[in-house]
Structures are given as C-alpha cells and as structure tokens.
Amino acid sequence: MGTDYNTTVRKHWDNSCGAGLPARESNDLDRVADKNVRATREFPTSLQIGNVRISPATVLAPMAGVTDTVFRRFIKNLGGCGLIMTEFTSADGVLRDQRVRGRYLHFYEDEHPISAQLFGSNPSVLADAARMVEDLGFDLVDLNLGCPAKKVVKCNGGSGLLRDLPLIRQIFESVRAAVKIPFTVKFRAGWNDDEIVCVDLARLAEDCGLGAVALHARTREQGYSGNARWEWIGLVKQAVKIPVIGNGDIRSPEDACAMVAQTGCDAVMIGRMAPSNPWIFRQIEQYVTTGSFVDPAEADRYQMIRTYFRMLLEEEMPGAEGKMKQFASWFTHGVPGGAALRKAIYEAKSGAEILGRVEEFFEAKLSAQTT
Ligand SMILES: Cc1cc2nc3c(=O)[nH]c(=O)nc-3n(C[C@H](O)[C@H](O)[C@H](O)COP(=O)(O)O)c2cc1C
C-alpha cells in the first residue's frame, strides 16, 4: 500500500486529549465565572442540518487516532451525543486505496447520524471522495479546514487553505454539486491573528449552499495554546443563517451552556474532553434538564474502561494495543493508584493482558471498598 496519509499526518496533531487539556488562563476563568453566563442553562434541544436532525445538539469532534468506529459507538452508547464524525480522511487516499477506505470510512448502522470528514485541496478529487462518502451511506460530509499538520498544510490541505478563499470557493462549489447529503465545513478562525477569515469563510459557505459550519475558535498559528476565543463563534453566528457549531475548550456542562449563552451557537462540539470524561455529553443533558449532573463513581469508571477495551479487542482494530495504552492514561487520570495501573498496562504485552490488568486493579479496589 502507498503512504497511509492519515497515519502519517496523525502524529502531528497535538495529542493532548482530556487530561492534557491545559489549565484555564485567567481571562478564560473570568469568562466562564461570569455569574450571569454561568447561571444560564439554556441549550438548544436539537439541530437541523438539511434533512438531518441532530438531537441533542452536541457533536463529538473528529479526532485522528481517536474517533474510530469503536470510540464513536462507545460514546454514542453512553448517551447525550447527537452527532459523531469520522477522523479526518484523505480524499486522495480513499479514492486510491480500498484499505484506507475500509479503515477510515467504515461505520455501523447504529452510528447514524454520522458525518465523514475529508481533507484535501483538489476540488474534483474532493467531489469524487464526497460522492463515495454519500454512496457509503453517511448522513453528512464535512471538509476539514483546520488541520495544522505541516504535511497537510504543505499540500494546501487543512488549515493551509485558510489563506486561499478563492480555492475554498471552488472546493465548496464542486463538492456541493457532487452530493445530495448535507455538506458542512470545520475550520479554524484564520492562519494567524492578522489573517482572521472566519466570518468571510462562513458567509462563503452559506453562499455556496453548505448546511452548517463548525468553528474551532483558534488560529492555525495558535495550535492548541492559549484560549479558544469564543467571541469569534459569536461573530460567525451573527453573520450567517445556517447553523453554527461552536468548538474549543469545553471541559464541563457549565462550559457548554456558557458557550451557547455567549455566542448563540446552535450546537457545541467537544474533542479532547471526551476521552477522559466520555460521560460529558450525558452530563450536559442532565445539567440542562436538572441543574446538576452525576459524576461517575469508581465502579462506573471501571465498567467504562472494560467496555471500551472489550469493544476494541472484539473489533480487532489495527493498533488496538497501542490505543488501549493511550486510553488507559486518559481514563485513569484522577483515579487513586492510577499511576501503578498505567505502569502495569505499559508493561503488558498484549491487548488481553492489558484488559486483565485493568480487571485485576479495579476488582481489588472495589472489593476493598465493600469489605
Ligand atoms: C488527537 C487529536 C486529533 C484531532 N484530529 C482532528 C481531525 O481529524 N479533524 C479535525 O477537524 N480536527 C481534529 N482535531 C481537532 C478537534 O476536532 C477540535 O477541534 C480541537 O481539539 C478543539 O476542541 P476541544 O477543545 O474540545 O478539544 C484533533 C484534535 C486532537 C487533540
């Protein structure tokens, strides 16, 4: 097989999921500590993108190396997540190589509604790939204009395109004409602070018939540093009539409501928090309805890890072992004695052994609690 583009570029993402979300900076604290904003629990019940109804109005962000079919179904089963998306997928790769297609665009019936995210820079290649996505039965197709990876940017893909609005127009028009399913775009605010294009880009998307836009409110140059600047989401919302999905730095149900209150966005998208707190979507639902939410007990955390690991092993996912190790560190963050478990997991030689270590660890803890 030629280069698997997804795998090659994946390592360039900032891989700091969940536990790695940096501490808030002070102005960020002020933002969410604002009593009026903090107190509001208004949250859209659903989101309509073309003929696709998304309820509740929450989206699992696409994350390379994370949001494969197992993780997506795992999140969906826990409840509260209205839309799931594939990890970004090379338009070129899926057209050329059946194995890339099988690996990145495979999904199960219980994943609907589901969106496939593509990246690339050639309008006709992206249109062909979008047609394939539609034929495979996806409900939506999304274009990635946010990937900061050098390898993608160098070929003008991902956030590299943010500097070429005329080419973006060509891509929008070409993909829009190629498929009937709703077409959406996920982008960063601009290349850097001097080249903010989010409002122009959202208007362009609306003009070209896209069904919704999702904004990760950082620039390409920012990477994952500093705060997501939610005010940009508000500006985009004011500029277009199509739904706007807000993304960046949501760590809690309160944050999700604060983003809606501050920006008026139609849905929220959550990325890095999902692997360390996969209950976050359900917690948002609980919080919006009751004003409080349940934190998982240790027994729940155990069930969750075990379920996810078993799903990975059953799926015979390529790289399952590596994923189990990676997830173990996110999942066990904050669990007393978690460091010892992480060490045991890293030393394990197979997926089954990793699962065994997890079971031993939690069984011992839970039985100590009940005796
Ligand atoms: C490990 C990782 C992989 C990512 N992969 C993708 C991707 O494939 N496509 C995409 O549009 N964004 C990707 N992102 C960005 C997220 O979708 C999201 O925009 C970003 O993490 C900000 O949201 P958050 O603060 O809720 O994490 C990735 C982020 C991380 C941490």
| Sequence stretches where pLDDT stays below 50 over 5 or more residues | 9-20, 23-33
- Indicate the percent of residues in helices: 40-55%
Strand runs, count: 11
Write down the CATH topology of the largest domain: TIM Barrel
Which CATH top level class of the largest domain fits? Alpha Beta
The fourth-level CATH homologous superfamily of the largest domain is Aldolase class I
What number of structural domains do the residues give?
2
Q: Ions, cofactors, ligands: which are bound? A: flavin mononucleotide
User: What overall geometry do the principal axes of the alpha carbons give?
Assistant: globular
What kind of sheet is the major sheet? 9 strands, parallel
The secondary-structure class comes to alpha/beta
Distance between the termini: 55 Å
CATH architecture assignment of the largest domain: Alpha-Beta Barrel
Mean pLDDT: 88
Estimate what percentage of residues fall within beta strands: 5-15%
Cα Rg: 20 Å
The total of helices stands at 18
Q: Sketch the topology as an H/E string, one letter per element.
A: HHHEEEHEEHHEHEHHEHEHEHEHHHHHH
